[in-house]
Amino acid sequence: MEEKLELLDNFVHLARIALSDRKQDVQVFLHRIVKRSTTDPKLAKELMKLLRDNPTFSSPLRRGFKTVIPADTDTRFQLLRIEERPHLPTKPVYTGKVQSALNRLVEERKNTEILMKAGLEPTRTILFTGPPGVGKTLSAQWMARQLNLPLMILDLSAVMSSYLGRTGTNLRYVLDYAKSENCILLLDELDAIAKRRDDAGEIGELKRLVTVLLQQLDDWPSSGLLIAATNHSDLLDPAVWRRFEQLIEFDLPDAERVKVYLDYLFEEFAPDMKIWTKVLAVAMAGRSYSDIERDLNLARREAALKGLSLAKFLTNLIVPNQMSKKEKINIAVQLVGKKLATQRKAHEITGVSRETIRTYLKNYDDTNKRI
Ligand SMILES: Nc1ncnc2c1ncn2[C@@H]1O[C@H](COP(=O)(O)OP(=O)(O)OP(=O)(O)O)[C@@H](O)[C@H]1O
Ligand SMILES: [Mg+2]
After folding, report:
1. For labelling alongside 359, which of 11, 145, 148, 312 has CA 20 to 30 A away?
2. How far is residue 154's CA from residue 216's CA, in Å, rounded to a whole number?
3. How many CB atoms lie within 10 A of CB 223?
4. pLDDT of residue 57
5. By alpha-carbon position, which residue is closest to atom 8 of ligand 1?
């Protein structure tokens, strides 16, 4: 009887923690039941199997790492975000130069023994620079996937808490922790340290912070990889950025890269719209990948809500006042040449006169015939 009551209690407790989405607590509780279930080996066996199929405590506090993840001593906010196996939202698109630099870094890590034999170490510290939305964070995730390592992300703008006095302690704590784990550490928004410099009252504290960082950069062990990202490398103390062993500059994509990116995106949700990618690539060149994705999603939502073809909204992505005359003509001709729009519509979208379109269209037709 008593046993039955206990079973009921356990059941209710389990339901409560499961419904409040506390997976880690559910796992702990099940482990406890398994240990206690001497009278019911079948139940214990079943539960063991379930726990095995849902491995490790997924809460970062209890994950496979040796120690507890650093948190701010007062707020208890976790200072690090850990991506065990980073999810790549899309396949990254790179210039040949960036791609080969990244490939080499991965190669180095995969062949440390060869390097060691030659008395060398793999690159330990890397600085990613470039405007927002061009793939700095994405590339750190990509590296982690290539190397099968967890990615620890420290957002410095978050760590630069209003209590600046604690930032040095927090930073040292996080860096020491990351050093002790086999992982990639991403120091995101590195310029957050530099940005606060204008406030005269805080200069002393910031200097100390930069000193902590410099020491750590020099001492970073070759077993770990530290990547820092910034979109204001000019704001960084030259002493800081000189310390990095490798600099990689990301830039806004040209039409060629935008086309590759759009081809990936369209492949996923509307392969029949791929005919548009060349025109859109010319129209959207020079904008960040994240802006392009956002605008495309906007068009998709509008099309879905109105129940119309996406093609009707893709023309909204062409904003002629940001383009040179040559680009406008190129787009107008492509629109008509590919039969994506009538001459009148192409004129409306780009502002290029129908007469000019006709003139250039002749060349376009000739070129395509030649091909
Ligand atoms: N090179 C790229 N190739 C493909 N997609 C990209 C690329 N860069 C950015 N994106 C898209 O834009 C999103 C945002 O990119 P990411 O977070 O890497 O930007 P960031 O350079 O770190 O910007 P920020 O300086 O704002 O942190 C990515 O999740 C991805 O969808
Ligand atoms: Mg980023």
Report:
1. 312
2. 15
3. 13
4. 44
5. 135
Whether residue 129 has its Cβ less than 6 Å from ligand 1: no
Tell me how far apart the alpha carbons of residues 14 and 12 are, in angstroms, rounded to a whole number: 5
pLDDT value, residue 199: 57
pLDDT at 371: 42
How close is the Cα of 136 to the center of ligand 2, in Å?
5
- Select from 98, 126, 137 the residue to mutate for testing ligand 1; criterion: most ligand atoms less than 8 Å from CB: 137
Q: Which residues contact 56 (CB under 8 A, 6 or more apart)?
A: 62, 63, 64
List domains and CATH numbers for the chain. Answer: 2-57 (no CATH), 81-249 (3.40.50.300), 255-370 (no CATH)
Radius of gyration of the chain (CA): 27
* Dist. CA 166 → ligand 1 center (Å): 30
Which ligand does the CA of 291 lie closest to?
1
Question: What DSSP string describes 126-148?
Answer: EEEE-STTSSHHHHHHHHHHHHT
pLDDT value of residue 4 = 75
Q: Is the CB of 261 under 6 A from ligand 1?
A: yes
19 CA distance to ligand 1 middle (Å): 35
pLDDT in tens, 251-305: 999 999 999 999 999 998 889 999 999 899 988 999 999 999 999 999 999 999 9
Per DSSP, what are the bridge partners of residue 127? Answer: 228, 247
What token pair was written down for 180?
């002790």
- pTM of the predicted protein model: 0.77
Give the number of the atom of ligand 1 that is nearest the alpha carbon of residue 141: 18
Sequence-separated (6 or more) residues with CB below 8 Å from residue 63: 56, 57, 82, 84
Low-confidence spans in the chain with pLDDT less than 50: 57-63, 371
pLDDT for 36: 72
Does residue 69 line the site of ligand 1, with CB under 6 A? no
The number of C-alpha atoms within 13 Å of 49 and in the hemisphere containing its C-beta is: 6
Shortest-distance Cα residue to atom 12 of ligand 1: 290
Q: Ligand 1, closest atom to CA 138?
A: 18
